[in-house]
């Protein structure tokens, strides 16, 4: 399974009054992870946007396991959980420096035409990218 990793230095502004990372920041880190895996595979979101497509989140689940704090470095591990005709599900683990899991998550995305917001298969827009996602996806069903 192909897994991309992105380190994130936790900034003070990302913490809440309790001194732990505010929950919504994990979503930002997940975006960094998606961007990194796409880059590691040789593509960019910008390529899609330039030709008139967007990839919005349509579903998200996250499970918080162990608090992270200012001054720590988080590692975001990202992989393609599942990719089919219209949907791509990314999987994530966000880890402490010692390997302890801070959070696990999945986000589901579709590719849509920017002007109509109607779903479009990635295979139609970028066949090589689609083939790579199918090749490395974790769930083969």
Automatic annotation (TrEMBL):
<dbReference type="InterPro" id="IPR006684">
    <property type="entry name" value="YbgC/YbaW"/>
</dbReference>
<comment type="similarity">
    <text>Belongs to the 4-hydroxybenzoyl-CoA thioesterase family.</text>
</comment>
<protein>
    <submittedName>
        <fullName>Acyl-CoA thioesterase</fullName>
        <ecNumber>3.1.2.-</ecNumber>
    </submittedName>
</protein>
<keyword id="KW-0378">Hydrolase</keyword>
<dbReference type="GO" id="GO:0016787">
    <property type="term" value="F:hydrolase activity"/>
</dbReference>
<dbReference type="InterPro" id="IPR050563">
    <property type="entry name" value="4-hydroxybenzoyl-CoA_TE"/>
</dbReference>
<dbReference type="InterPro" id="IPR029069">
    <property type="entry name" value="HotDog_dom_sf"/>
</dbReference>
<dbReference type="Pfam" id="PF13279">
    <property type="entry name" value="4HBT_2"/>
</dbReference>
